[in-house]
Amino acid sequence: MRKITARLALIGVAAATMSMVPLAGTSYAAGGCSGAGCDNKGPATYRCDASSSTKRTVNSNGRVAELRWSADCLAGWVRIKNNADPSVYDSTATIEKWSLDGKLLKSLSVRTPGYGQTDWSNMLGGPEFEYRVCVRFDSDLYPLQCSSKF
Questions:
Q1: What sign has the CA pseudo-torsion 123, 132, 79, 61?
Q2: Is pTM beyond 0.85 here?
């Protein structure tokens, strides 16, 4: 009788545990991270890109960097498109995370892809911070260009 009671208890624990696992299509699966918990995670992987919009844009010599923000994930990233033909100089797009008192806390970068292509960085998150995006060239021919903060 003890073995049967123990097995039934084990089955009950397993059933309760399975009921806590999120299923595909639930709101948890749609985001998967939130705020600073999204730091250095991919926006597509965590499905934050589905609810994103462009908050700031900077264009530096044909490199268009956008600050993308997900209201669902409370996180942002830089998306860069290379409209420069020919792409003679290499460049990098960066998203920066700033404290409200003006201190740079973190940044993530992505190399600018080839002509006509788009790429993006991982995310930085949290609604209690400010963000901006920048384009930096490897040469000193073009100055650093940054958006205003969001």
A1: negative
A2: no
